[in-house]
Amino acid sequence: MVVKLERQDEIAFVTINNPPVNALSAAVRSGILECMNAAITDPEVKAIVLTCAGRTFIAGADITEFGKPPKSPGWDELLAAVEDSRKPVVAAIHGNALGGGLELALVCHFRVATNDAKLGLPEVKLGLLPGGGGTQRLPRIVGLEKALEMVTSGRHVPAKEALEIGLIDEIVEEGQLKEGATAFANRALAGSKRPVKVSGSNAKLEATKDNPEIFDNFRKANARKFRGFLAPEYNIRCIEAAVNSATFEEGLAVERKLFMELMIGPQSAAQRYYFFAERQANKIPDVSDDTATRPIKKVGVLGAGTMGGGIAMNFANTGIPVTIVEVKQEVLERGLKVIKSNYDRTAARGGLTRELVDERMGLLTGSLDMNDFKDCDLVIEAVFERMDLKKNIFERLDAICKPSAIMATNTSALNIDEIASVTKRPEDVIGLHFFSPANVMKLLEVIRGEKTATDVIATSMKLAKWIGKVAVLAGVCPGFIGNRMLDQRERQAKKLVLEGAMPWDVDRVLYDFGFPMGPFRMNDLAGLDIGWVKEESRSSTVGEVLCEMGRLGEKTGAGFYDYDESRNAKPSPLTEKIINRFMATSGKMKWTVSDDEVVDRCIYPVINEGAKILQEGKAIRASDIDVVWVNGYGWPVYRGGPMYYADQIGLDKVLAKMKKFQATMGDDFKPAALLEKLVAEGKKFADFKQTQKTLEPA
């Protein structure tokens, strides 16, 4: 029984018990409706408390039902039964009240919550909008501006803030939710709390009818964040309808219409796919969920540069002490100073208290002696990408670290097995590839070596979640998953520039595709001198010439682009001259490169490389590759990821284009064997399954 009804004196308790998150499945909706009707018709019952068993209130609708034929009872029937109850209904909230869970709470006449509760309408993250009246009721309770912010961000509002904005009526003591809700219901019955039917409350909407610029101002303020996404705009339109419609039902009709448009559209399908893909990435076929993990109570980081400092912050943020080792005192001090300034900026924006800044800095200990790693449970090296240097470091770590310690390298491309080979315990070596800036970027590529122990993998995946990262397991190969695929895009972008497209042309097309920036703007931001050695420069590429001229990117005010004092990028006539000179020297004919050509040349080879990674067993699933690209490389989530995108446009189309490119431009475009195999069998990347070392379409 997922919903039960109990009575205590004059109060009926409708309790939902559908673990793990009490999702509103058809069975739960049916149970609530049945219990509500029974409580309403029971003459002994004077008030009703809606509550949940387990660790949370209702954390959302049952997402597995999305896109399928509706099951009875429908949302409207359930919500109407609660809201129209002639007896006061109190929602008693603990844990999370999200999505449909909050919408159900909104039709209750009162809401009480424990201090740990969080409330929100996160449907926008699935490319949707609240489809159960959320966009119509929320602004009637919290006001227009707060409602706009909540539905377009999907943010979880903590109980204290929820009380301040009127989203809940009272905070009750943790562990005393039932008692607190009962006391509140009794006060309502005594007349000190008047039941409120939200759909009939228009006061906060009326106050904004003469201020329509609120919507335009909100759109302008968030234009960059909402770029490319449909769902935020549709959420805004729904709240506009709440203000401008003559009746509540009229606004509700707009919400239903726009909800269905999103539900059947490609963006929501992609975002719902990604929702499951991110969770699936944690499932590793040969590492069971019950694999014992190693305790990580102290971490060592070798290197206090940008990457090392960012890595250290991740652990300090979660209360784990970190020892940071550098070779020179001034470098160590500079690194700790950068960390402190990062925390100070967050505090200045209100993201941290001064006490928390001091607490986190207190967890960081600087040292010039690697022997101080001897009591660390995990040591991560974050030094230059040189194999000889890393092997030397791991020989020393092998002698210093305690037997149970995990030794990790932050390499972005080097062979983990070669690094591990210099140790006497290669089973304790793993790759933890953080992305820069490491304290901000969500992605963590976890690289398993040939001999990496399963408990080391399990510990790394669990630890990633603990420090707020999205982890994807990869095998050993040059560049692993993300950078290996990125190389294909970079190669083609550079070739296109020597065929007639300017850097800003390529960047514009990929920006319009949905990336936060194109490859040349990204290179300018990172610095063109990464990997460039002045003494070895031969003026053989556009990038080398720019570096030789001191045009190292945004930091020097010029790179592929020219930059003004505000660091705004502008097309550079000088860069264009350099490119034209290269073209003239090569004897290539300049031609007009279409936008479609840019997309095909930059995206299809990325997809093809992903297919090679799959067929080699370097990624477990196609969806894992998509998680890497969404979190680490700015692939627009409303396109799902490169492998999902390929499935949607058709693998036969990708294959045909790759063959056409191969015929005219060579074997850089040779189709992956897996791509050809899947097309021949009429299957998709989503059909591909990896079983240990044997790879074949399911």
Average the pLDDT over all residues and give the rounded result: 95
Strand order of the largest sheet: 12-11-10-13-14-15-16-17
The percentage of residues in β strands lies in 5-15%
**CATH hierarchy: architecture of the largest domain:** Alpha-Beta Complex
Low-confidence stretches: 692-698
Whole-angstrom Rg: 28 Å
What is the count of helical runs?
29
List key phrases describing it.
alpha/beta, 4 domains, globular, 2-enoyl-CoA Hydratase, Chain A, domain 1, 698 residues, 6-stranded mixed sheet, disordered C terminus, N-(1-d-carboxylethyl)-l-norvaline Dehydrogenase, domain 2
Describe this structure in words.
This protein has 698 residues and is an alpha/beta fold. It folds into 4 domains: 3-263, 2-enoyl-CoA Hydratase, Chain A, domain 1, CATH 3.90.226.10; 299-479, NAD(P)-binding Rossmann-like Domain (Rossmann fold); 516-586, N-(1-d-carboxylethyl)-l-norvaline Dehydrogenase, domain 2; 595-697, N-(1-d-carboxylethyl)-l-norvaline Dehydrogenase, domain 2, CATH 1.10.1040. It is 46% helix and 13% strand. It contains 29 helices and 21 strands. The protein has an 8-stranded mixed beta sheet with strand order 12-11-10-13-14-15-16-17, sandwiched between helices. The protein has a 6-stranded mixed beta sheet with strand order 1-2-3-4-6-9, with helices on both faces.
Helix-strand blueprint:
Elements: E1 3-8, E2 11-16, H1 26-41, E3 47-52, H2 75-83, E4 89-93, E5 96-98, H3 100-107, E6 110-114, E7 118-120, H4 134-142, H5 144-153, E8 157-158, H6 159-164, E9 170-172, H7 177-189, H8 203-206, H9 213-221, H10 223-226, H11 231-244, H12 248-263, H13 266-280, E10 299-302, H14 306-316, E11 322-325, H15 329-348, H16 354-362, E12 364-367, E13 378-381, H17 387-400, E14 406-409, H18 416-420, E15 429-434, E16 443-448, H19 454-466, E17 470-474, H20 482-497, H21 503-513, H22 519-526, H23 542-548, E18 561-563, E19 569-571, H24 573-586, H25 595-615, H26 622-632, H27 642-649, H28 651-665, H29 673-680, E20 688-691, E21 694-697
Parallel strand pairs: 2-3, 3-4, 4-6, 5-7, 6-9, 10-11, 10-13, 11-12, 13-14, 14-15, 16-17
Antiparallel strand pairs: 1-2, 7-8, 15-16, 18-19, 20-21
